[in-house]
């Protein structure tokens, strides 16, 4: 108690002082948590997921994980590196260390312990070899970044050329930093701590010559949570140099607007930003600096309040969309990324430690059940990268020793720490945060307890004091999804009176003794939640559980991914969105009440009447239980008037298409063989493909493609070109008519929305006079791509 208050007061204490209390490392770094060994999962979905994950982890070949570290240290690898994501070689080893450490703490698994200790010994050898071989730049270095010597030796002198050409080097090494920290934090491996701190000293030294301006320029490249790592090192040692480094590694481009309550996240890579915010919050927690505290808090508020979907995930195609681009969630298959939620849960834990508000746990619970738990295959244990929201699409899964995506790394950890936040403590208060079957050994109080529940399959839980006798305040979470007045709390069958409302905690202060029983009744009801900025689409929830519907198993291409570069994307057939089921109801607020429970199947419902269009009947069930199938997660919900408008809109689109066809003098579909032959295709450094059931062609880095098109003698024509609105990279190119430049087009980041976009370019009459044919050419500027172009028309003016 005394030490906890002192930490809160001064922000940090050296471990020397903390060791007097004989605290576990986890309690030293995160003083509100219980060691994982003191919280045991009982039978239920989370214990199953944890145990299956251990089986999956033990299938990975450790020497392959270690190969990049030995290679960069000048030591002979004992096995080959994983080919998948080779440019990011090394990142997965850090995640694996973290996963091993968590499972050692939770289960004392001997195989995990042996693997962790073997990896630590190997990494120490790599660190020593680096220090000896490259004393000019590698003293203390233990990363596996490909071409480490070239990158870091130049970076320390302010030359970022190799650094920027590589694949996110700081992001890469951050994973090993975190793995070494966790090997100490959870497995209490002191050698890991020594390697970690030497590695931190290397990070300080390699950037010591960089001015603050150059540091900020360096941070323009994704760098993971490096500021968090140095904040942790500061808390572990009390050495100010690590706090200085944590602040130097804090990206002001994000920090400053967040601290002022300004959301500038549109079109930013989501998982680049979340780890930065974790670091901001950690620095704020340890120093009480209001700038960092405000930044961490506001980031969480704006992401969870404005940018998060019903199941707790965020981002599409890895980026935060602008409000106008949220329809991408319906169109795209690259939905919320698992890594984002992994990191948002870390940020939530940090915020809760400083200010234990129930709103943090409401989000934590929602994301834990509906996203994190759902990203593990319940039989083979594979991990999910993207969770598509597109109606009637599906997810794909990793396989051990094949795919090495970033979400494989975070997935390795996700299922090993389900017991971490069920209970927390603050002073004399014990917080009951999550309703998960488990036991707790609160050693400081001499109290042991057991939580029995089948939640969410049943709407209650029971907490029994199985050992001990001590006074403390039990803080029972009143979830936001229970209606006002709906929560019931009984102690030894006596109702507890309280005035608190949903999204709060009920405080029960008494001397607790062995045999005391707390029963909590948690009535759930069904609600709908709109897709942000796309109100016609909504998800259906029962309590905190998002319900989905299986809708077929056809064309699940790449369901278990291989080691291909794009295997993490569910690339099978995209079923037409306009033919997906629509929920039709004049009073949309009544939809939830019209769902009928399925007898004998908990949390399964059917639509009671004829509310569905394009489907006769569908059965709703918890989304986290849906696997190996196409599914509905968000539904178009319309009243009869809106449905008529929707049909009218389709009719309007059809009329527009017919009008465009009437204006068309000639057209070519790039990428389609016969139309290109018919229009005398010429090309250099050009490519073609198919996307959204449409063919395209582009040209790169000075390359071109051109077509001979008929004018029919018309001199008042425009060039109508169709593009995809979400292309990445530099898209600047020239369009020529018979080798005379018509204009320069720059589509770089122009729309950033997953929809086809058409542009019309008037052609001067002088370029058309006396001609029955013209050659239209698209030529990329150096370092750019022309296109992709999906359709080209010569059109007359609209009437």
Description:
The chain is of the alpha+beta class and 799 residues long. Among the domains are: 32-209, no CATH class; 425-455 and 460-521, Maltose phosphorylase, domain 3, CATH 2.60.420; 526-639, no CATH class; 662-795, Jelly Rolls. Helix content is 35%, strand content 23%. It has 23 helices and 30 strands. Strands 12, 13, 14, 15, 16, 17, 18, 19, 20 and 21 form a ten-stranded mixed β-sheet that branches. The longest helix is centred in the N-terminal third of the chain and has 24 residues, at 110-133. Residues 1-21 have low confidence and may be disordered.
Strand tally: 30
Number of helices: 23
Instruction: Note the main sheet.
Output: 10 strands, mixed
Structural class: alpha+beta
First and last CA, distance = 80 Å
Average predicted confidence as pLDDT: 93
Radius of gyration, CA atoms, in whole angstroms? 29 Å
| Beta-strand content | 15-25%
Q: Which consecutive residue ranges, at least 5 long each, have pLDDT under 50?
A: 1-21
Shape: globular
Helix content: 25-40%
């Amino acid at each position: 108690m005394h030490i906890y208050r002192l930490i809160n007061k001064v922000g940090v204490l050296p471990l020397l002082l903390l060791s007097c209390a004989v605290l576990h490392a986890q309690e030293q770094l995160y003083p509100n948590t219980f060691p994982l060994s003191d919280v045991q999962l009982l039978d239920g979905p989370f214990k199953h997921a944890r145990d299956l994950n251990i089986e999956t982890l033990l299938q990975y070949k450790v020497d392959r994980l270690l190969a990049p570290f030995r290679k960069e240290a000048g030591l002979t690898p004992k096995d080959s590196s994983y080919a998948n994501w080779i440019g990011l070689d090394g990142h997965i080893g850090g995640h694996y260390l973290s996963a091993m450490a968590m499972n050692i703490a939770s289960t004392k698994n001997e195989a995990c312990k042996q693997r962790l200790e073997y990896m630590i010994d190997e990494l120490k050898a790599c660190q020593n070899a680096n220090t000896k071989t490259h004393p000019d730049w590698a003293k203390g270095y233990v990363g596996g970044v490909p071409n480490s010597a070239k990158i870091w030796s130049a970076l320390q002198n302010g030359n970022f050329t190799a650094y920027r050409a590589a694949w996110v080097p700081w992001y890469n090494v951050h994973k090993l930093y975190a793995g070494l920290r966790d090997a100490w934090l959870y497995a209490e491996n002191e050698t890991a701590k020594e390697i970690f701190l030497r590695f931190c000293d290397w990070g300080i030294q390699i950037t010591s010559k960089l001015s603050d301006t150059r540091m900020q320029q360096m941070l323009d490249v994704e760098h993971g949570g490096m500021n968090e790592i140095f904040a942790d090192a500061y808390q572990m040692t009390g050495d100010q140099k690590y706090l200085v480094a944590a602040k130097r590694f804090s990206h002001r481009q994000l920090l400053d607007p967040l601290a002022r309550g300004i959301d500038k996240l549109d079109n930013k890579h989501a998982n680049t930003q979340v780890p930065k915010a974790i670091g901001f919050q950690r620095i704020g927690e340890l120093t009480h600096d209001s700038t960092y505290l405000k930044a961490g808090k506001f980031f969480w508020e704006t992401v969870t309040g404005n940018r998060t979907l019903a199941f707790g995930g965020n981002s599409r195609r890895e980026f935060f969309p602008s409000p106008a681009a949220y329809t991408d969630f319906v169109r795209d298959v690259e939905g919320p990324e698992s890594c984002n939620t992994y990191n948002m849960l870390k940020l939530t834990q940090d915020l809760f430690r400083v200010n234990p508000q129930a709103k943090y746990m409401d989000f934590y619970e929602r994301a834990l059940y509906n996203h994190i738990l759902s990203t593990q295959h319940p039989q083979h244990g594979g991990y999910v990268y993207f969770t598509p929201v597109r109606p009637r699409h599906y997810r794909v899964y990793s396989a051990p020793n094949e795919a090495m995506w970033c979400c494989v790394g975070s997935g390795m950890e996700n299922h090993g720490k389900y017991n971490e936040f069920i209970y927390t403590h603050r002073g004399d208060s014990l917080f009951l945060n999550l309703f998960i079957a488990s036991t707790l050994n609160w050693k400081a109080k001499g109290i042991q307890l057991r939580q029995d529940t089948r939640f969410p399959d049943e709407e209650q839980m029971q907490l029994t004091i199985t050992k001990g006798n001590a006074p403390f305040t039990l803080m029972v979470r009143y979830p936001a999804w229970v209606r006002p007045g709906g929560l019931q709390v009984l102690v030894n069958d006596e109702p507890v009176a309280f005035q608190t409302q949903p999204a709060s905690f009920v405080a029960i202060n008494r001397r607790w003794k062995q045999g005391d029983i707390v029963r909590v009744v948690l009535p759930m009801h069904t609600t709908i939640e709109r897709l942000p900025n796309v109100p016609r689409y909504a998800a259906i929830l029962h309590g905190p559980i998002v319900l989905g519907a299986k809708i077929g198993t056809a064309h699940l291409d790449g369901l278990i991914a291989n080691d291909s570069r794009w295997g993490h994307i569910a690339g099978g057939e995209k079923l037409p969105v306009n033919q997906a089921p629509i929920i039709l109801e004049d009073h949309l607020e009544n939809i939830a009440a019209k769902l009928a429970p399925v007898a004998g199947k908990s949390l399964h419902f059917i639509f009671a009447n004829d509310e569905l269009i394009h489907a006769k009947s569908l059965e709703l069930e918890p989304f986290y239980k849906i696997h190996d199938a196409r599914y509905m997660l968000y539904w178009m919900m319309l009243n009869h008037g809106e449905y008529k408008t929707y049909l009218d809109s389709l009719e309007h689109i059809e009329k527009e298409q017919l009008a465009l066809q009437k204006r068309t003098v000639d057209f070519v579909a790039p990428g389609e063989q016969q139309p290109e032959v018919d229009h005398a295709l010429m090309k250099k450094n050009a490519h073609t493909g198919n996307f959204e059931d449409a063919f395209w062609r582009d040209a790169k880095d000075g390359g071109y493609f051109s077509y001979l098109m008929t004018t029919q003698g018309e001199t008042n024509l425009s060039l109508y070109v169709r593009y995809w609105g979400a292309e990445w990279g530099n898209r600047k190119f020239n369009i020529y008519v018979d080798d005379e430049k018509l204009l320069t087009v720059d589509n770089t980041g122009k729309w950033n929305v997953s929809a086809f976009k058409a542009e019309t370019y008037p052609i001067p009459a002088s370029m058309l006079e006396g001609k029955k044919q013209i050659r239209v050419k698209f030529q990329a500027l150096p370092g750019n791509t022309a296109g992709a172009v999906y359709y080209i028309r010569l059109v007359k003016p609209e009437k």
